[in-house]
Amino acid sequence: MKKRTFIFKLIAIILLFCIVFPNTGTTVSAKKKKEKTYVVCLDPGHYGSQNKIKGKTGYGYSEAEFNLKLAKELKSELESYGIKVKMTRTGKNIKIGGYKNKTLDDIFLALRGEYAEGCDLFVSLHTNSNAINANNRKTFEQSLTLNKTIVIVNKKTMQSNKYMKIANEVGKAVTNESYEEGLLKKNKFKTRNVNNIIEWTGEYNDKEGAKGTVCYRLNSYGNDYYAVLRGSANVDVPGMIIEHGYHSIKAVRKAAMKEDLAYGWAKADAYGIAKGFGLIE
User: How far is CA 44 from CA 57, 119, 123, 192, in A?
Assistant: First the structure.
């Protein structure tokens, strides 16, 4: 009888303990795994109204102004995927580390990349151009056959399968958007991996009919040639420059002055980044 009473009391104590501490005993495997929140640093290339194309066929285009418009659209698109965003500039001026505009870009340009410290990815947004009078045409009257998307990555990115995938996904998505906008003759982008990535050259950049692709470019010291990419590598952040298309082509400038191209390229950039991070099936 005493033994039975002891068992009843023990059961009552256990039940009471479970009521007071309902989560006790939950195994680690039963807990919901917290998903990683990615952070991307966007760098709208240049500042002010730099690279403004003069004349009637310039259509008022400024690369610096367009890059900022594109960045704002991209920020919104990335946030829709749950990605956090920080920007090197949100207006015409840029100020980092006490340096501003021309001083920053002429001497301390790497600070733009270093601003990405703590982020998962650094992305510098640009439109492209060519050597003076390339292909025997005036600089800003290039043929649509020149147009292509080039993604230039830093050493941190080019050595990573994960980040090379992001670069490829962005390149493919932007190429497709440009084709849909009628800015490409062919919807083709050459994907690359850590074993077959090519080095950027002026010859490739200015070649008509060439496919867009992922490139790297190093200086004579074996470091990243572009200061912004060198800067992001300095703070251990994979980085890339996206040359969406050539503003030296009249059709691209004209399309860029409409709202839909910035929006379309931003959606393409965001899709490529999100897919590369595994946020899209």
Answer: 24, 16, 9, 25
> How far is Cα 229 from Cα 115, in angstroms, rounded to an integer?
11
Token pair for residue 263? 């929006």
CA 165 vs CA 54, 227, 276: distances in Å = 38, 23, 6
Judged against a pLDDT cut of 60, whether residue 79 lies above it is answered with yes
Instruction: Name the nearest CA neighbour of 137 among 258, 51, 246.
Output: 246
Give pLDDT tens digits for 231-244. Answer: 999 999 999 999 99
CA distances (Å), 34 to each of 153, 256, 262, in order?
A: 30, 40, 34
3-state secondary structure of 234: helix
Residue 7's φ and ψ, nearest 5 degrees, are: -65, -45
CA distance 111 to 103: 11
| Entry pTM | 0.88
